[in-house]
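Teaching assistant's notes for section 4

Start the section by putting this record on the projector. Ask students to predict, before seeing the second block, whether Deferrochelatase will look compact or extended. Collect guesses on the board.
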Amino acid sequence: MDHVPNTESEREPDDAAIEATSDDDAGAPSPRADAGPAARTADDAELDGGEPAAHPHRFTRRGLFGALAAGAAGLAVGGAGGAAVATGVASSAGGGTTTTYPFFGAHQAGIVTPAQDRLHFASFDVSPETTRDELVDLLTKWSYAASRMTQGLDVSASGAVGGSPFAPPDDTGEALGLPPSGLTITFGFGPSLFTDDSGTDRFGIAAQKPPLLEPLPRFSGDAIEAARSGGDLCVQACADDPQVAVHAIRNLTRLGFGRIVLRWSQLGFGRTSSTSTTQQTPRNLFGFKDGTANIKAEEAGVADEQVWVQAADGPAWMAGGSYLAARRIRMLIESWDRVSLGEQQNIFGRNKGEGAPLSGGTEFTEPNFTAPGAEGGDEPVIDMKAHVRLAHPDNNAGSRMLRRGYNYVEGNDDLGRLDAGLFFLAYVRDPDQFIAVQHALATDLLNEYIRHVGTGIWAIPPGAAEGGYVGQTLFGV
Ligand SMILES: C=CC1=C(C)c2cc3[nH]c(cc4nc(cc5[nH]c(cc1n2)c(C)c5CCC(=O)O)C(CCC(=O)O)=C4C)c(C)c3C=C
Ligand SMILES: [Fe+2]
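Reveal the predicted structure now:
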């Protein structure tokens, strides 16, 4: 890891990290000043003193919910900093879990982390007036807020209900009472952050742009919509409760008012990949098990080989990071539903029930691409244009990718067809791992039933050191 060292005093977490800038009504002056000593919370003490809490996981939104339900005195006058109240546990209506993943670490969470059930993904453009210092300040605030929300805390110590009644709350509040739900928040930098359309180096980082970070090329059959593509920054929020994921994106967006603009966003449900051997393989909207051959966190050495940028790869600031390729892929559900079971299986090269390759065995048996068809003819049992054949590492110089996609359904079009599909997310050490496979899929039998309508690529910096911020290795302050 190549983190720029930082000191406690330089990077002391503080509510100030969340306060508004003059062009930003998201943050009023710190409400803690109004609250008085009686209102001080364990969180406040931790923040003021710069000492990390020994057990930050104790302070949960759920704890606060219990206190509210019990009518805890003082909250109505903005007394108690919400997140400190750890008693009176109420269960979540959203079905979330108490799982937490650390925000700080060598790699960002949300990549090899076991894929959660829900996604809210957002792409932002940095506003023309935003300076480098303001961008760094935003990344600092984002990291601080993310480090709290991923532990089930409000966005700041005063949070949703602990601040001044005369100022907008720091936290929007819709996650009050919900457990952490395994929330992970992953940040990325698009090619246009380094140089804009006119070639301008807006933030003095053009020289540090990874040579591999170029907009994805046009692929055969693409029907890309600009409004669903690209973006200077991306944020992937995954959780086991949709409201927790949406709360995270909403509050991060709010922190960026005046500095960034939401370009597009995507909700997802029903993860379409497993990233851990502890997880059952889920199904996509075509009804097939998806993620069987995905990279799993438990595969020794594979993430270093295929997912994490190594120090020797360069640039130095990306060591421990990754690249994220995103594709919004519409699935033509109604056409697919008229295809026979045999042809559906032929298209993927796996059976629909168990997900086993058509060459035989069980779900996790490696496909045999030379096994002959049942009639004993020349044709192999796994079609030459089957999806798993074309996407398999044997067909792609050994290259793999960590898939982390989600189903989406967004109503229907004017012909009464579901606007549904796969929001495909793949993490790779080198974007060419995705590009080569996507080119190989040009003859995929599946193409008759899908349309790629959105695209994007982002450099995913390494994780932040405790108390630091994501992107510190790039900006160096
Ligand atoms: C460029 C990469 C890929 C795109 C785009 C893609 C789209 C896509 N895939 C499915 C469903 C399945 N994919 C499966 C396997 C699979 N897919 C890719 C890559 C892309 N898929 C890879 C690398 C693999 C693994 C190949 C291997 O190593 O065997 C499967 C089989 C089960 C599994 O291993 O996950 C399914 C099912 C859809 C529906 C889709 C677009 C909408
Ligand atoms: Fe696939």
